[in-house]
Amino acid sequence: MENLQNANPTILNLSDLPTRKPTASTKPKSALTSLAPSYANDPFAPSSVPELVSDDSEDDDSVVESIDAQEIYDLVSTMCDPEHPITLGELAVVNLDHITVQDDPEELTGLITLEFTPTITHCHLATVIGLGLVVRLQQALPPRFRIDVRCREGTHTTDRQLNKQLADKERVMSALENETLMGLVGKMIETCK
Amino acid sequence: MKEAALYMHHAEKDPLEAKKIAHDTAKRIESRELKLLELVQSLGEYLTDDDTTVRAKAIGYLSAVLGELGPKSLSRQQVPVITQFLSDRLEDETGLKEVATGLTSLTKMNFFGNAEATRIMAALLGVDLPKHPPTTRFAVLTLIDALMSGNRDALKAMGDKFVTGLADLVGGEKDPRNLMILFSVMKVILVEFDIVRHTELMFDIVYCYFPITFRPPPDDPYGITAQDLKNRLRECIASTHYFAGQVFPSLIEKLDSTSQNVKMDVLQTMAACALSYGPTTMSAQSSQLWDAVKFEVLNSAGEDDLANEALQTLKAIATCLSKGLTTVPPANTPLARYLKAIVKECLELLKEPQQKQAKPAGQILATVATASAPACAFIIQSTLPALLLIYSDAGIIAKQRALMQCLNRFFESAIAVYGSWTDVSAAPGIENPLEEHREKLFGIYSQALMGSNKEETSFRLTAMRGLGKLCDIRRFLADNEIGMVVQYLDEIALDREEKDEVRDEALQNLRKISKFKSSLIMQITFPAFMAQLPDSEQESKEENKPYLGTLEALAKLSLERPVFEVLLTRLLNKLEVVLSAGSGPEYPRAILATILHVLQQRSQSTLEDTKAYYNRLIPPLLTKTVVPLVAGGSAVLADDSVLDVTGRLVRIITHELDAENQEMVMRSVFELFVNHSPSNIITENAGIVASTFRPLDKDASKEAAGSTVILTSILAASRREISLPVERVPSFLAHIIELAQTPKSAAHRLSLLRLIALVINKWTTTADSVAVKEQSQALLSSISNMEQLRILFWIATALLLRGDKYGSEVMLHLVELLSHAELGATAARGFAVLLGHDEFLNAENFAVVRLLYKQRVFSQCVPQIIDMFKKADSQTKPNLLTALSNILRSVPSTIITASLPSLLPLLLQSIELHDADVKAATISTLEITILENADVVKEHVAGVITRLLKAACDRGEEGNTPAVRKSALRCLRAFPGKLRGELLLPYKRTVLKQLQLALDDPKRTVRKEAVDTRVKWWALGEPDE
Amino acid sequence: MPLQKLASVSAHTDRIWQCAPHPTLPLLATASGDKSSRIISLLTYNTLSTIDGGHKRSIRSVAWKPNTRGESVLASGSFDATAGIWRRYEDDSGAATGGEYNDEEDEEWRFAVVLDGHESEIKSVAWSAGGSFLATCSRDKSVWVWEELDDDNFETVAVMQEHTQDVKCVTWHPEEILLASASYDDTIRLYREDLDDWVCCTLLEGHESTVWCITFEPLTTPNYDAKRGARLASCSDDKTVRIWTRVGQSGVGAGQGAGAPPSILRGAPVEENWTCSAILPKAHDRSIYSISWSPRTGRIASCGGDGKIVIYEEDKTSAPGAMEVDGDAKAEQGSKAWKIVAELKGAHGVYEINNVAWSKRYDKDKRGEDDEIIVSVGDDGNVNIWAVE
């Protein structure tokens, strides 16, 4: 056992992590309501929908579901901590309240800010975590978003330096060319659901 | 003595021939024609030959002969002589293999005794075995093994000489096959022989092989796996407690290994040793083992295999230390000492139940508690008071919940030790240690579930699960207590304020309880639920009493036979009430659907039950349905939507009847529908019905016609041995086909089409088939509308299913229709019917279904479609592609892939069609192809990727539906890992860049797919891949 | 004053960090994350050739060597901690036609020398005005000066370790042997050769975050004042652009113009005094990555993470003379002189813009000899060409 930075962190219960309220479409259909009359689906009729797409009840593009804080949270909360097989959500490294999304349809670009909280104030992996979050979000979000990942003020002994680095595009990009770092980040992202 | 010469001549070139020669010689010896001694003497010259191979072959001959001899064929005098003779050959080590083989054969002889065994062993000990090749060593080890099983006492008698000698003999063996024998020999020695003075030596011989890192060669002829070796070695190591002193320190050391496999092996070996070494030995080891093994659990997330293995090891120690204990272990016992340390440390960690190590700590306690009743008692007694204290001081709910989860594990341990209600095994002697805390626990959990804020979902869920487990522990909670739990659960399940997950959990727990306390469910839950059911749709609306949820819940709880009985009675009464209140179709349909649902969920009922259900359900129901049609009254049961459910009920119940009863049902239904004579399916007004009910007349009312589904259902459910009670099947069929051309409703149409298919598939004789042919020809020649088209497709399906050649003919006509200006598009969609699954027309419902019928359809249609496509005009092409995708959709991919090269071009085109269904279907065909054999698409990678990217990214007015975009993304995701990196890397940047568009999709679910797909592609050729 | 897009060249599949117009020929060189550099014709705006295989990681910076005869020399700085020198023969006809190469001439770009020494990513490379010195700076906090003794033979003449952090940018004074560097430590430093030793002669403090880019005022700008000497412009993560002016005499040949013999006075003080003489009007709401100072119009262009291109112009009349007032008053007055004359949002769509550069205009629609264009490069991998209407 390599000695861990923080062997015994506090863990949030999965069921307490913020999730999107299930919409009608995601709710499991009740056995009775879903019992459609066998004559209802006529394969000869043009409108018939084959099974393999029928799961998609929200087939209407006019209803736009815009990217919100919860969506950002869902993107990062299942990443796992570089030293524990536990997710950043469970470790409360990422929190829904510390994510903001500015996405004004009038504006060309949007802004996403995410403040993370290391499990301990001297965690030497904070940089890796920050980098991992940046990489994940850059991969998962359309380019019109500017992404500011910061370590929450006062939650790390060196949060100033840390944040200046994370804000430095040039440094982040050159980190992305560093194989060992990317190895770690890859591991963090593997667990994403 | 020419055999010898001959044998030696063939020995290498022609082993079989050689064997035969030996066999013949053996026969001659057995028939006393030849004396064994003569044979031996005859070998004399060779045995002194300078050429070692000659000497070896000569002995080989002797051994071969011995091998062919039956156990009785050597006399009391011969055996020792030959033994002596061969044993002497051992000194001259040429032909050791042959000698050993010969001796092994000797051991099978009836007169082979301990004296010979001792002599051989003594001689063997002189041999320098390690210098010989593996096959020779194998022969020798086999010999030793034989002696060990046949003359163990002789070897024991040899004492130290044997034990130490053997050590030198087999030291340093490496060959896996030989090790398998060696290990089993060693195990016997370790267990039975007096080795106390040689523990060190024995330990060295055995333990030097740990851990096994053997990886079998690809062409291993003996198929020995690393696991086989591990298991045998483990048995050796575990076989004598004398090893304890050396084994455990060394195992603990090896636990630091970085290899998961080694750690696994170590933990399993520890467990094996713990279980066999016995309490006295283990009491000395337990504490250091605890100190070493605990980290494997505490530092893991508690889920992985290693952690589980470690838990099992800790449990094994407790199990061992529990031996002979029948009471709560007194403080001075080894078990108590072992558990005390564990309890102390785990309790400490549980003081902060939310921290990472609390969960593993809880798991340790819970798992070790399952070791034995004493262990369970000790752990629970020494932890529960403290835990309950922590709980009451916890203050914050999250902390309490974390602690409850730990307690819930304890309940599971209690179930493991004391069993659940459904168990029959004897309960342990010690009283369940939870007993003294029963009221407190029951109080806490009830309070947590019913007394806390509804918003505290996870907290209450945990409490509910806990209560569920408490109920499950055998003879723990009293019926009145379980009854209270049932009331809680009822309350929650019926409360529409509660979250769905909470209500579902409540139902699941009620369901569990219904398995061992169904009486409580019937006494408490049913009245409560039934009371929630409105008496009419009107009431349902006005008093806001939605019935679906309640019915749903009832269905979930009624899988047990007695409960279902009650459900049936209550729902049928309710149906009466609802009908008399003058209802629309929805509510009655829902009630019937509930019964149907339970029947579908239930495992096969007995014939007796089924008969009972039939009598209670079908005739009354049909009567209520039909009578109003002729005598007036609410015809709501004759509504298509209700009849649909009634039909399914009829089918599912009739299906479970035996032939004899099915025949009766068949007769009565024909009386009702065809012969118009009083039918015992109708329980009242049978006369009026017989005289006026004409569902199969052209001018029947829509409702009457609609009831045809009943007839269809019964034909579907019946075995085909039961003949149709009609004079001529063809004319009956003709009549139905006639009707089917002017259906009165969608439901009516489907009933008739199915009826046609059922009759053709199950009841037409070869004689009838001519008629069938004529009728179909007539339709084909004059086809002018969709109804006829439908009929033809169903006829074709029925015929194809039973492998009828004519079916293919019809089908090919239908393929040609794809270019038909008006009917083409419909025909294209019709191909979904041809191969799709039908609830009524299938093997399970006694239809004739030839194997490979899908293959046949595929191989007959697809080529024709492909070359029609070559010359097709722009408006036919979509039809062909639609038909194609409808076929591909329901054909096993294994069949498709074969002809994929010729199909791919078409598939790629149909991705660009407008029809969303076709697109989606095609894309999923592609996905399956890529997943199952990607190589087919190799040459088309570029084309496929570009089209998929387009499908994934273009949306909006003319664009693709979210469903299509999603499946396109999923399909793109299938590439990485299925095709070699270098084939894909050229597209990596493009794919990643293109998919940025999909990241901005208006639909969240699409964005999600896009993200996952990009991650896969991004990882292509990454360092960590 | 609108910006009109003349062309958009999608030159790279990955982000373009920087671009450099050739001092005399209608050529543009790019530096990209795809480890390659491309040469683009400013006559036709077509890609002429690709320079790759020289660097193992992103190319961060490129610079044309000035005053070369018959050949072009390009220096490249990469995240792989090395700098490269590339050569290609130019026949003057090629120059006149904008070097429309024929295919096989691609190979004519020769990777002549690798300069290694830096411990980590090189962030910027720059040739001195005369072309005899090459400066490089790196994440390793150091600034190196290389001297080309003869063809392909470079010698390290100085390593300055003055900065406490990552050095982002180096640039040379248009006539003096005066080198400037900007850093992640929020400061700018100036260096001179003092006897045979290079020393830091000024520390410019004022920016509140990383200084991304610095550039000296070209001698040919309308507002150039020989007495005052070339000014220095800088842009920063603090979203400001600052102008710095030398005050008082410098130790070595200040204000004496080109070719002045360096003072031989022993111990003559090399320290110089520069002050912030202006802060340009705030226009960017994210980090400003690059600025460029037009030698023709004296306008300054800036770009940054907000995807904007902004152009500022200095009103000569209201601009302060060399030594009239000084201190904050001067700075304030100086600032007033600068006005925003153009501001373009989304110049590279939704993407960030990493670099802008003024260049002489060569294409067929050019309006006279001193017509000019702005070249911008961004994360979209595109090179956009703009005319100022």
Automatic annotation (TrEMBL), chain A:
Residues 1-61 are annotated as: Disordered. GO terms for biological process: protein maturation. It comes from Sphaerosporella brunnea. Residues 1-13, 22-36 have a biased composition (Polar residues). It comes from the Eukaryota. This is Uncharacterized protein. PANTHER family: CYTOSOLIC IRON-SULFUR ASSEMBLY COMPONENT 2B (PTHR12377:SF0), CYTOSOLIC IRON-SULFUR ASSEMBLY COMPONENT 2B-RELATED (PTHR12377). Belongs to the MIP18 family.
TrEMBL record, chain B:
It comes from the Eukaryota. GO terms for biological process: DNA repair; iron-sulfur cluster assembly; protein maturation. PROSITE patterns: HEAT_REPEAT. Keywords: DNA damage, DNA repair, Nucleus, Repeat. Signal peptide: none annotated. It is found in: Nucleus. One of its GO terms (cellular component) is cytosolic [4Fe-4S] assembly targeting complex. Residues 40-299 form the MMS19 N-terminal domain. HEAT repeats lie at residues 39-77. Residues 550-976 form the MMS19 C-terminal domain. The keyword Amino-acid biosynthesis does not apply. The keyword Nucleus applies. Belongs to the MET18/MMS19 family. Key component of the cytosolic iron-sulfur protein assembly (CIA) complex, a multiprotein complex that mediates the incorporation of iron-sulfur cluster into apoproteins specifically involved in DNA metabolism and genomic integrity. In the CIA complex, MMS19 acts as an adapter between early-acting CIA components and a subset of cellular target iron-sulfur proteins. This is MMS19 nucleotide excision repair protein. It comes from Sphaerosporella brunnea.
TrEMBL record, chain C:
Keywords: Repeat, WD repeat. Pfam families: WD40. GO terms for cellular component: cytosolic [4Fe-4S] assembly targeting complex. GO terms for biological process: iron-sulfur cluster assembly. WD repeats lie at residues 52-86, 115-147, 160-191, 204-244, 281-313, 369-389. InterPro entries: CIAO1/Cia1 (IPR028608), WD40/YVTN_repeat-like_dom_sf (IPR015943), WD40_repeat_dom_sf (IPR036322), WD40_rpt (IPR001680). This is Probable cytosolic iron-sulfur protein assembly protein 1. It comes from Sphaerosporella brunnea. The gene is CIA1.
